[in-house]
Amino acid sequence: MVKNGFLIHYLRSSMEKEIVLSGIRPTGFLHLGNYFGAMRNYVRMQDEYNCYFFVANWHSLTTHPDTKTLQESVLRVVAENIACGLDPEKVSLYVQSDVPEIAELYLYLNMLAYKGELEKTTSFKDKVRLQPENVNAGLLTYPVLQAADILIHRAVKVPVGKDQEQNLEMARNFAERFNYRYGETFPLPYAFNYNSELVKILGLDGNGKMSKSENQNTTLFLADEDDAIRNKIKKAKTDQGPLAPNSVKPDYIENLFTLMKLVSSADTLKKFEDDFNNSSDGNCIIRYGDMKKQLAEDMVSFIQPIRNQALDLQNNKELLIKIIRQGADKARSSASNTLSIVRKAVGMDY
Ligand code: TRP
């Protein structure tokens, strides 16, 4: 029996493309950091791998028990992902709660996860600090549910940022324990990204990563209106300019150049790089006001079509529902296949 599970996995993976999976929490709006840090990579992966991308709405219950706006957020995230280039024909794009097989695997994995190790994870400790009035068991077992998300498709490549490393390590531990106890069933999943260094985008004040929850005025959202984009960039932190040619750029200035590199033409970028590095009569040439004006226009041109497509999709709820149903069908077919192997391995197949 031990060998059997392994053989099935071996045959499957040798015949098919490698399996990539990632989850997106439906809390908050997607922003430019998500786009360049994650989604752009997902879009690239969809041609090379067998991809599963899903909206983690069960996970969101651990921190957001009020579900009044949850459905809307889930559909918005799906729409935004498609607008960014994910093709629901190529990938399986689904909602976690539409795949009940994940919950059953979560149950088996819970018996292999220890209270002590779960209590020690950084994200659990952070959340205990943030919501001391709601330290629920779901919060404690968050990494177990995440492991079930991944292992249910026997995914091996998980495109996530650094902050998810610990959750992935736990997923590997649970998979190894399962394999050891019930026979080789799961390949071990690892974090995966194309460029070892992910593009890091800071907030427009230069303080920390661009983020959904922190300061709305320093984050560029994919849903931002043109004028909101212009205003935020106009207010981005700068200073009086470099005091000498070829100075080292402070973080917040470097960040503006990073953004320009991502959304402006090579010529535009070069012009402002040169202006930054050169001087005339001892005075540095660069004018941050001009740079920000140019960046704002290029950013508007970049975000506008994504925003509009996402809005069109959100106004076509029928189509969105059809897309997630189709995603769920694909995901459930893979998930039930794994689950029948799991049930057999555990001895739950009567
Ligand atoms: N925990 C992830 C986050 O906070 C979301 C997530 C849930 C996830 N399940 C996953 C990511 C499975 C990758 C694989 O962003």
- Uncertain segments are none
Strand proportion, as a percent range, falls in: 5-15%
CATH hierarchy: architecture of the largest domain: 3-Layer(aba) Sandwich
Helix percent reads: 55-70%
Number of domains: 2
How many helix segments?
15
Level-1 CATH class name of the largest domain: Alpha Beta
Ligands, ions, cofactors: tryptophan
Secondary-structure class: mainly alpha
CATH superfamily of the largest domain: HUPs
Give the spatial strand order of the biggest sheet. Answer: 1-2-3
Distance between the termini: 16 Å
Largest sheet: 3 strands, parallel
User: Quick one: how many beta strands?
Assistant: 7
Shape: elongated
What is the chain-wise order of helices and strands? Answer: HEHEHHEHHHHHEHEHHHEEHH
Rg for CA atoms: 23 Å
Please name the CATH topology of the largest domain: Rossmann fold
Rounded average pLDDT: 93
Provide an overview of this structure.
The chain is mostly helical. It folds into 2 domains: 4-199 and 310-346, Rossmann fold (3-Layer(aba) Sandwich); 216-308, Tyrosyl-Transfer RNA Synthetase (Orthogonal Bundle). It has 15 helices and 7 strands. The protein has helices at 2-15, 32-48, 57-60, 70-83, 101-110, 115-120, 122-130, 137-140, 142-151, 165-182, 226-234, 251-263, 266-277, 288-314, 317-346; strands at residues 19-24, 50-55, 92-95, 157-158, 190-191, 279-280, 283-284. The strands form 3 sheets. The chain has a 3-stranded parallel beta sheet with strand order 1-2-3, sandwiched between helices. A hairpin with a 2-residue loop joins strand 6 and strand 7. Helix 12 packs across helix 14 (288-314). The radius of gyration is 23 Å and the shape is elongated. The two termini are 16 Å apart. The structure holds tryptophan.
